[in-house]
Structures are given as C-alpha cells and as structure tokens.
Write a structure and sequence with these properties.
5-stranded mixed β-sheet, 37% helix, elongated
Amino acid sequence: MAISTGGGGDTPMSDINTTPLVDVMLVLLIIFLIAVPVAIQTIEKLKIPVFESVEAKTKAENLLLTVSTTDDAGRSAGEPGFAGASRNGECRVYFNNITPVSSDELEKMAFDRLDAIVQRAGGAEALMADPEKIPQVHIRGDVNAPWRCVAGSIYRIQRAGYPIVGFISNPVDPDA
C-alpha cells in the first residue's frame, strides 16, 4: 500500500480532503431515507377542517363586489350565450353585485361611497371611536376568476380607503 504524503520537498499539499464531505453526505442521505416515508404518510392523512358556514352580520354600509371574467368568446355574465367565466377572459367587477365597473370606476365609486359614509357618521374620528361602524368590503369571486382579477379589485378597494376586505364563500356541507 502506498500513502501520499503531499508531494516531495517544500511544496504544500493542494488536494482537497473529501472524506468529511462524503461523511456529511452519507449522514444526510440516511436522514432523508428515514424522513421521507414518514412525511409522505403524514401528508396523505392530512385532513383540512371544514367549518359550517355562519351567516355574517351585514351592515347597510358594507360594499359587496362580485369578481368574474368573460367567457372564451368575450361575453359577460347576463349576455345571451354566456358559457361561464374563463381563466383567460377579461376581468369583470360588479359594484354592489349589480353595476359592472372598470378598475378606475371601482376606485372612484368606492371612494365616493366611503366618503359619504364618513361624512354621515361625523368624520373619521367618529368612525374610529366605534369600530363596528367601519364599513367593510365583501368580495365574492367566481371559482374560475384568476387571482389577478381578485387582487386587482382588492388593490383598488384599499386605495379607495376601505380598511377591511373579506371574502364570501359558498357554504360547504360538513357531512359531505
């Protein structure tokens, strides 16, 4: 058997000692071989809790938005031949679930509505004194509406000054 002593003479040994690297890699391999099957079994048994839908207390001041998209042919909901929202369609936002608005109109109408509520309450300080009076925005998003449409609506609403934005979901049968 031969052993390398780092060369001869005054030159230092320039080879990297890979033994510690191999030792660490073997230990990590053993850890992952043990941990992965445990993690897979744990994830398969994961059950997300389903809560019964509780009717929210809605105030007249709350703003309701519906976010959807056009279908593949460019038709909006309510038009003849509408085939359902498409992920590739244009965003459609309905102010108080009725009036279709663009992004700029949404921000202006929401600001005007909030301003009128604040003035009627006696100013921002009066609303801040009683947090229950602060109006909220409830967004109902179509299941096929892409996130860009919902996020754009949230952005415009927050720019208009609404501090609380929530989502309305369809009730789920907990027994199903």
